[in-house]
Amino acid sequence: MGSVFGKESVEEPPHDTLLSRSDATTSYELRKYGQRYAATITYKKTGDKSENSPFGALAKYIGVFGTPQNEGDTSIAMTAPVVMENSNKPTQIAMTAPVVMENNKDDDSDSNKKMMFMLPVEYDSMDKIPKPTNPSVHIEEIPSQTGVVHVYNGKWGEARNTELAKVWHNN
């Protein structure tokens, strides 16, 4: 499961709303997004909240902390959403009897994570996007996607996402 967060008052990627449900116990929208671009960084969860964090590195790329860390020193507007995802791929296991799998949710420090800052709509091709000067920051093309969006206020994180997903699933 991934999470997406951001302020409602900043630019979001253009999308078509295919369905909007505000009369359900948990309101949601079904949205179709077109192709877009994101500044990304892949990291291992360490609990480090310093400006060396993935958020800090991406914020420096767009110029939040002063001079932007990209070729041309181009300031880029902050947009929503910021996307965080677990980038681990499932592991195929040969069928045996029994099959035992264990997942310690409290210690996923070996898991690769990815954080993405969606770029403003004017950056609609790779040749328009300033190149990062930090080798950890990459630019990725995000293909067109359809997704369910639930907007809520307050704290975000894996535990909160799981809690909301359970509520949403049970409705």
TrEMBL record:
Q: What is this protein called?
A: SOUL heme-binding protein
Q: Where in this protein does the record put region Disordered? A: 1-23
InterPro entries reported in the protein's UniProt record: Reg_factor_effector_dom_sf (IPR011256), SOUL_heme-bd (IPR006917)
The record's Gene3D superfamilies line, in alphabetical order, gives: Regulatory factor, effector binding domain
Q: Which family does the record claim for this protein?
A: Belongs to the HEBP family.
PANTHER family linked to this entry: HEME-BINDING PROTEIN-RELATED, SOUL HEME-BINDING FAMILY PROTEIN
Q: Name one Pfam family in it.
A: SOUL
